[in-house]
Design brief:
With about 250 residues, this protein is of the alpha/beta class. It contains 9 helices and 13 strands.
Length: about 250
Protein backbone atom coordinates (compact mmCIF):
# COMPACT_ATOMS: atom_id res chain seq x y z
CA UNK A 1 0.00 0.00 0.00
CA UNK A 2 1.45 3.35 -1.06
CA UNK A 3 -0.89 5.97 0.47
CA UNK A 4 -2.95 5.91 3.66
CA UNK A 5 -5.65 8.60 3.64
CA UNK A 6 -6.58 9.84 7.12
CA UNK A 7 -10.15 11.09 7.52
CA UNK A 8 -11.86 12.04 10.80
CA UNK A 9 -15.65 12.40 10.84
CA UNK A 10 -18.22 13.86 13.18
CA UNK A 11 -21.80 14.42 12.02
CA UNK A 12 -20.60 14.74 8.42
CA UNK A 13 -23.62 13.27 6.65
CA UNK A 14 -24.26 16.48 4.71
CA UNK A 15 -20.87 16.49 2.97
CA UNK A 16 -19.15 13.12 3.28
CA UNK A 17 -20.57 11.61 0.07
CA UNK A 18 -18.84 14.34 -1.95
CA UNK A 19 -15.59 13.71 -0.09
CA UNK A 20 -15.75 9.95 -0.66
CA UNK A 21 -16.64 10.40 -4.33
CA UNK A 22 -13.63 12.72 -4.78
CA UNK A 23 -11.32 10.10 -3.24
CA UNK A 24 -12.79 7.31 -5.35
CA UNK A 25 -12.25 9.47 -8.44
CA UNK A 26 -8.47 9.62 -7.89
CA UNK A 27 -6.40 8.62 -10.91
CA UNK A 28 -3.87 7.11 -8.47
CA UNK A 29 -5.44 3.94 -7.08
CA UNK A 30 -2.94 2.42 -4.62
CA UNK A 31 -4.49 3.84 -1.47
CA UNK A 32 -6.43 2.92 1.62
CA UNK A 33 -8.95 5.24 3.26
CA UNK A 34 -9.01 5.06 7.06
CA UNK A 35 -12.05 6.85 8.48
CA UNK A 36 -12.43 7.29 12.22
CA UNK A 37 -15.84 8.47 13.36
CA UNK A 38 -15.83 10.67 16.44
CA UNK A 39 -19.15 9.52 17.95
CA UNK A 40 -21.46 10.90 15.26
CA UNK A 41 -25.17 11.08 16.02
CA UNK A 42 -26.34 11.47 12.40
CA UNK A 43 -26.18 9.09 9.41
CA UNK A 44 -22.43 9.50 8.81
CA UNK A 45 -21.51 5.90 9.65
CA UNK A 46 -24.34 4.44 7.59
CA UNK A 47 -23.16 6.41 4.56
CA UNK A 48 -19.56 5.27 5.06
CA UNK A 49 -20.71 1.67 5.38
CA UNK A 50 -22.48 1.97 2.00
CA UNK A 51 -19.15 2.94 0.44
CA UNK A 52 -17.29 0.16 2.27
CA UNK A 53 -19.59 -2.35 0.59
CA UNK A 54 -18.60 -0.85 -2.77
CA UNK A 55 -14.85 -0.56 -2.15
CA UNK A 56 -12.73 -2.68 0.18
CA UNK A 57 -10.01 -0.02 0.35
CA UNK A 58 -12.21 1.91 2.81
CA UNK A 59 -12.20 1.12 6.54
CA UNK A 60 -14.24 2.61 9.36
CA UNK A 61 -13.25 2.88 13.01
CA UNK A 62 -15.54 4.30 15.69
CA UNK A 63 -14.79 6.16 18.89
CA UNK A 64 -17.24 5.46 21.73
CA UNK A 65 -17.09 9.03 23.03
CA UNK A 66 -16.47 12.31 21.24
CA UNK A 67 -12.75 12.97 21.68
CA UNK A 68 -11.86 15.50 18.98
CA UNK A 69 -10.16 15.46 15.61
CA UNK A 70 -6.67 14.77 16.97
CA UNK A 71 -7.75 11.51 18.61
CA UNK A 72 -9.77 10.51 15.54
CA UNK A 73 -6.90 11.21 13.14
CA UNK A 74 -4.43 9.39 15.37
CA UNK A 75 -6.67 6.33 15.49
CA UNK A 76 -6.55 6.20 11.70
CA UNK A 77 -2.79 6.79 11.62
CA UNK A 78 -2.39 3.88 14.05
CA UNK A 79 -4.02 1.54 11.53
CA UNK A 80 -2.24 2.99 8.48
CA UNK A 81 -0.07 0.66 6.39
CA UNK A 82 0.93 3.03 3.57
CA UNK A 83 4.30 4.64 3.04
CA UNK A 84 2.71 8.07 2.58
CA UNK A 85 0.25 9.59 5.05
CA UNK A 86 -2.27 11.96 3.42
CA UNK A 87 -5.08 13.89 5.09
CA UNK A 88 -8.58 14.71 3.87
CA UNK A 89 -11.31 15.87 6.21
CA UNK A 90 -14.87 14.70 5.71
CA UNK A 91 -16.13 17.94 4.16
CA UNK A 92 -13.16 18.70 1.87
CA UNK A 93 -12.53 17.64 -1.73
CA UNK A 94 -9.54 16.62 -3.87
CA UNK A 95 -9.05 17.16 -7.59
CA UNK A 96 -8.93 13.79 -9.44
CA UNK A 97 -5.15 13.93 -10.04
CA UNK A 98 -4.24 15.01 -6.51
CA UNK A 99 -2.51 11.86 -5.32
CA UNK A 100 -0.96 10.99 -8.67
CA UNK A 101 0.64 14.41 -9.05
CA UNK A 102 1.71 14.88 -5.45
CA UNK A 103 3.21 11.42 -4.92
CA UNK A 104 5.13 11.66 -8.21
CA UNK A 105 6.36 15.10 -7.11
CA UNK A 106 7.60 13.70 -3.81
CA UNK A 107 9.32 10.69 -5.34
CA UNK A 108 10.97 12.59 -8.19
CA UNK A 109 12.20 15.44 -6.00
CA UNK A 110 12.87 13.28 -2.93
CA UNK A 111 10.67 15.46 -0.73
CA UNK A 112 9.57 13.99 2.60
CA UNK A 113 6.81 16.51 3.38
CA UNK A 114 4.68 18.38 0.86
CA UNK A 115 1.53 20.42 0.54
CA UNK A 116 -0.25 22.41 -2.19
CA UNK A 117 -2.47 25.43 -2.80
CA UNK A 118 -6.21 24.82 -2.58
CA UNK A 119 -9.46 26.50 -3.50
CA UNK A 120 -11.78 27.78 -0.77
CA UNK A 121 -15.46 26.91 -1.17
CA UNK A 122 -18.53 27.67 0.91
CA UNK A 123 -21.05 25.17 2.26
CA UNK A 124 -22.88 25.16 -1.08
CA UNK A 125 -19.68 24.43 -3.02
CA UNK A 126 -19.25 27.92 -4.48
CA UNK A 127 -15.62 28.94 -4.98
CA UNK A 128 -14.71 31.90 -2.78
CA UNK A 129 -10.95 32.19 -3.10
CA UNK A 130 -7.56 30.54 -3.39
CA UNK A 131 -5.06 29.91 -0.63
CA UNK A 132 -1.79 31.81 -0.79
CA UNK A 133 1.18 29.51 -0.10
CA UNK A 134 4.93 29.85 -0.33
CA UNK A 135 7.03 27.53 -2.50
CA UNK A 136 8.65 26.05 0.59
CA UNK A 137 8.59 26.63 4.33
CA UNK A 138 10.91 25.85 7.23
CA UNK A 139 9.97 25.63 10.92
CA UNK A 140 10.53 29.33 11.64
CA UNK A 141 8.57 30.31 8.52
CA UNK A 142 5.57 28.27 9.59
CA UNK A 143 5.48 29.84 13.04
CA UNK A 144 4.57 33.15 11.39
CA UNK A 145 1.72 31.82 9.25
CA UNK A 146 0.51 28.34 8.35
CA UNK A 147 0.70 27.75 4.60
CA UNK A 148 -0.18 24.07 4.91
CA UNK A 149 -3.83 23.13 4.50
CA UNK A 150 -4.57 19.77 6.10
CA UNK A 151 -6.34 18.52 2.96
CA UNK A 152 -3.12 18.87 0.94
CA UNK A 153 -0.52 17.66 3.46
CA UNK A 154 1.39 14.43 2.79
CA UNK A 155 4.35 13.06 4.71
CA UNK A 156 6.62 10.09 4.04
CA UNK A 157 6.83 7.50 6.82
CA UNK A 158 9.99 6.09 5.24
CA UNK A 159 11.66 9.33 6.31
CA UNK A 160 9.76 10.27 9.49
CA UNK A 161 8.18 7.06 10.71
CA UNK A 162 4.60 7.48 11.90
CA UNK A 163 4.13 10.88 13.52
CA UNK A 164 0.91 11.52 15.42
CA UNK A 165 -1.01 14.70 16.07
CA UNK A 166 -0.61 16.37 19.47
CA UNK A 167 -3.68 15.79 21.65
CA UNK A 168 -5.13 19.27 21.59
CA UNK A 169 -8.69 20.09 20.53
CA UNK A 170 -7.82 22.73 17.93
CA UNK A 171 -4.93 23.41 15.55
CA UNK A 172 -3.51 19.94 16.07
CA UNK A 173 -2.73 19.74 12.37
CA UNK A 174 -0.66 22.93 12.56
CA UNK A 175 1.16 21.48 15.58
CA UNK A 176 1.93 18.30 13.61
CA UNK A 177 3.41 20.26 10.71
CA UNK A 178 5.70 22.04 13.17
CA UNK A 179 6.77 18.69 14.63
CA UNK A 180 7.62 17.38 11.17
CA UNK A 181 9.59 20.53 10.34
CA UNK A 182 11.79 19.93 13.38
CA UNK A 183 12.90 16.73 11.65
CA UNK A 184 13.39 17.98 8.09
CA UNK A 185 14.68 21.21 6.62
CA UNK A 186 11.69 22.19 4.49
CA UNK A 187 8.19 21.31 3.41
CA UNK A 188 7.70 21.99 -0.30
CA UNK A 189 4.58 22.98 -2.21
CA UNK A 190 3.26 21.38 -5.38
CA UNK A 191 2.73 24.31 -7.79
CA UNK A 192 -0.96 23.77 -8.61
CA UNK A 193 -4.13 23.76 -6.47
CA UNK A 194 -5.03 20.18 -5.56
CA UNK A 195 -8.14 20.48 -3.44
CA UNK A 196 -11.18 22.37 -2.22
CA UNK A 197 -11.35 23.44 1.41
CA UNK A 198 -14.89 23.94 2.66
CA UNK A 199 -15.15 26.99 4.90
CA UNK A 200 -18.11 26.42 7.21
CA UNK A 201 -19.85 29.02 9.35
CA UNK A 202 -19.08 27.27 12.63
CA UNK A 203 -15.49 26.35 11.77
CA UNK A 204 -12.48 27.70 13.64
CA UNK A 205 -11.08 29.04 10.35
CA UNK A 206 -14.16 31.23 9.88
CA UNK A 207 -13.64 32.92 13.26
CA UNK A 208 -10.30 34.70 13.17
CA UNK A 209 -10.25 35.69 16.86
CA UNK A 210 -10.91 32.13 18.02
CA UNK A 211 -8.29 30.82 15.58
CA UNK A 212 -5.67 33.20 16.96
CA UNK A 213 -6.50 32.12 20.54
CA UNK A 214 -5.97 28.47 19.60
CA UNK A 215 -2.67 29.34 17.91
CA UNK A 216 -1.55 31.11 21.10
CA UNK A 217 -2.39 28.04 23.19
CA UNK A 218 -0.57 25.78 20.76
CA UNK A 219 2.57 27.95 20.83
CA UNK A 220 2.59 27.96 24.62
CA UNK A 221 1.53 24.40 25.50
CA UNK A 222 2.83 22.30 22.60
CA UNK A 223 5.79 24.26 21.25
CA UNK A 224 6.71 25.67 24.68
CA UNK A 225 7.60 29.02 23.16
CA UNK A 226 8.37 31.73 25.75
CA UNK A 227 5.61 34.20 26.59
CA UNK A 228 6.92 37.32 24.88
CA UNK A 229 8.08 35.46 21.76
CA UNK A 230 4.62 33.88 21.57
CA UNK A 231 3.05 37.34 21.76
CA UNK A 232 5.18 38.54 18.87
CA UNK A 233 4.50 35.42 16.80
CA UNK A 234 0.76 35.69 17.36
CA UNK A 235 0.86 39.32 16.25
CA UNK A 236 2.77 38.37 13.08
CA UNK A 237 0.42 35.42 12.51
CA UNK A 238 -2.66 37.67 12.80
CA UNK A 239 -1.21 40.19 10.33
CA UNK A 240 -0.54 37.42 7.81
CA UNK A 241 -4.06 36.12 8.35
CA UNK A 242 -5.57 39.30 6.93
CA UNK A 243 -4.18 38.49 3.47
CA UNK A 244 -4.10 34.70 3.72
CA UNK A 245 -6.70 34.06 1.03
CA UNK A 246 -6.52 35.73 -2.34
CA UNK A 247 -9.97 36.59 -3.68
CA UNK A 248 -10.87 35.35 -7.15
Amino acid sequence: MTVSIITPTHNSAKFIRETLDAILAQTFTDWELLITDDASTDETCQIVEEYIRMDQRISLFRLKKNAGAAVARNESIKHASGRFIAFCDSDDLWVPGKLEKQIAFMLQQEYAFTYAPYHIIDEQGNTKGLSAVRHRVAYNDLLKTCDIGCLTAVYDTKYFGKVYMPLIRRRQDYALWLQLLKKTKYACSYPEPLGYYRLRKQSVSSNKLRAICYVWKMFRTVENIPFFKSLWLVFVYSMHGINKYRKL
